[in-house]
Design goal:
It is a single chain. The chain is an alpha/beta fold. It is built from six helices and eight strands; from the N terminus they run E-E-E-E-E-E-H-H-H-E-H-H-H-E. It has a four-stranded mixed sheet, with no helix packed on it. About 13% of the residues have low confidence.
Length: 224
Amino acid sequence: MKIVCPTCNAIYKIPDDTIPPGKSAVATCKKCGGRIVIEPRAETGSDQTAQAEPLSGPQPPAFQQPPFPPQAQAGAFQFITEQDAFKGYAGFWKRFAASIIDGLILMVCGFIIGGFIGFVYRFTAGTSAGAGALGNLGGIILGWLYFAIMESSPTQGTLGKMALGIKVTDLSENRISFGRATGRHLGKIISTFIFLIGYLMVAFTSRKQGLHDMMAGCLVVNRR
């Protein structure tokens, strides 16, 4: 049996006996996160194609320019539990609030760690200017490690994102690697230098992606 995602047209193949005759099933597309309803099939042994229909109620935003060609072969189909099901993209204000929390955490930690490093350096063999530069460097490294480690960890998010119930994933909603998290963090430099337009894109793009999200191939989605 074949089922087709109504949002992105991805095709999934499943054995005919996966769903009992006369029963319907609900699943989530692994490509775009769209809901799929598999209608009941007749009790026949012949192969047939089940056209998936969207559930009633709120749906993920439709893609006007899908990142993959229509009718792309998506491979073996897997049902996704309600706990892991797509719960929508994280909006601009939720992400903004998370960034405020993370900024405060990094400011306090950077002040303590950077101040300690600068103090030790200044009173051992360095100058006050060198101590300031070393403290700034320590703050940059701290920010990188904070975002890259936490967003690639099983929590898939920083403390701010965890507090707001959101997480970072790749385009298939899987956990990202440390390297991809690093690329996403470095991409924020570009989002910042173009007058914060890279961040404002979150409010206007269909999948709520900033420029740095697009560059790293990431999504920020709701946990609940």
